[in-house]
Amino acid sequence: MPELRYDILSGTYTVIASERAKRPNEFRSAQECKGPVPEIDPGCPFCTGNEGMTPPEIYALRDAGQENEPGWRVRIVPNKFPALRPVEHSETSEVDSAKAASKHLPDVDDTSMYWCMPGIGAHEVVIESNRHNGTPGTYTIEQMAEILETLKQRYRILYDEKHIRYVQIFRNWGPEGGASLLHPHFQIIGLPFVPPEVSMEISRFREYESKTGRCVMCDYIERETEKNVRIAAKNDEFIALCPFASKYSFETLVVPRKHSVTFSELDHEKARQLADILISVFRGYEDMFSSLSHNMVFHTLPPPKRLRKHSTDHWHIHVYPRLNVEAGLEKGAAVWINPTPPELAAVQFSEKG
Ligand SMILES: [Zn+2]
Ligand SMILES: [Zn+2]
Ligand SMILES: [Zn+2]
Q1: CA of 305 to the centre of ligand 3 (A)
Q2: What would the pLDDT profile of 40-53 be if each residue is shown by its tens digit?
Q3: How far is CA 180 from CA 54, 177, 323, 342, in A?
Q4: How far apart are CA 154 and CA 14, in angstroms?
Q5: CA of 183 to the centre of ligand 1 (A)
Q6: What pLDDT, on the 0 to 100 scale, is given for residue 250?
Q7: Number of the ligand closest to the Cα of 300
Q8: Across the chain, how many H-helices and E-strands are there?
């Protein structure tokens, strides 16, 4: 019997279609081996030696060399084809007036019907490894922690821009994940508004807190730890769960085990612990699938200095493997069909991870 499950964080429903339960080897596209990936690809703009193929770097962690030269371990560059671009000083008033207009929408006229504003913000690429074939499952804890601390640093700096209201950190990999380049990288987009997906989640946190006085994520991970049937990995500071109402096969949710409002609270020790969990989750993925398209997204409020009043949230990372196709029910009704029960996914992680 299929089971309809409700996701307390997003307020959406998923059909867990357990009678057609799919194991890793049944997802053919994610098992297609496209041959070994070289450590350096001469045509790749993110590879060492090709620094001139990207816009000049914003920041880099280096063992040697000068700016925009080889010798880096992690390198941040502006996106060559940005979805949103930084604001120029001359444009400030235009942006401000567009923002002001958005706050005072007249009842019904062309302004509200066709409201828009300049596409300002930021779009950066964090080239996480100098190896073209680097994968999170093969990184050392030091290497992964360094990537996470670099992401945190940029997230904080981007919030210094007054036009940026939300910073989205994400990682696409593989064709179904929307990645145009094979070289492993994160992206950071600064948006001039808080996106609906995030404000929806925040309102769920608020609603739960107003009813119970507690944090929904703290309660959720406490129950999941007790039940112990959907845990993919855990250490002292972090837990990786296969969520109860997972939308995607082998989806995971990585969460600090102690209440933590924003990603900016990640210190060096916690970065190492998070690195340890992510490496273990990705080792699991890499053992199960030879080529797994996925999206990894961070959900976190701004650092404390940008938080206005009491803010309810508990930051976390979603990893969405792109094994299932989003079809009519997903698009039309935001109801998901997942052929892999999360309990089965968790068992595979503990066997493979
Ligand atoms: Zn490359
Ligand atoms: Zn919490
Ligand atoms: Zn979330």
Answers
A1: 22
A2: 999 999 999 999 99
A3: 15, 9, 18, 29
A4: 34
A5: 4
A6: 97
A7: 3
A8: 8, 13
From the CA of 20, how far away is ligand 1's center (Å)? 38
**Number of domains, the chain:** 1
Contact indicator for 290, 164 with CB cutoff of 8 Å:
no
Q: Which of 171-175, 304-308, 322-326 has maximum average pLDDT?
A: 171-175
| Ligand nearest to the backbone CA of 200 | 3
Residue 158 falls inside a structural domain: yes
Q: How far is the CA of 43 from the centre of ligand 1 (A)?
A: 8
Cα dihedral value 79, 81, 85, 89, nearest 10: 100
- Is 112 part of any domain? no
Which ligand is nearest to the Cα of residue 11, counting in written order? 3
Strands in 335-338's sheet, in edge-to-edge order, are: 3-6, 13-16, 335-338
Q: For residue 70, how far is the Cα from the chain centroid?
A: 28
Say if CB 4 and CB 329 are below 8 A apart: no
Average pLDDT over residues 211-221: 97
- Helical segments of the chain, H only: 92-103, 110-113, 141-158, 196-212, 216-227, 268-288, 328-333, 342-352
**Which ligand does the CA of 209 lie closest to?**
2
pLDDT, averaged across the chain: 91
Q: Which ligand is nearest to the CA of 183?
A: 1
The ligand minimizing its distance to the Cα of 212 is: 2
Tokens 């600064």, residue?
190
Is residue 336 domain-resident? yes
CA of 186 to the centre of ligand 1 (A): 13
In a domain, 191, yes or no: yes
Domain that holds residue 204: 3-86+121-352
Decide if 345 contacts 292 (C-beta within 8 A). Answer: no
CATH of the domain at 291: 3.30.428.10
Measured in Å, residue 172 CA sits from the centre of ligand 1 at 15
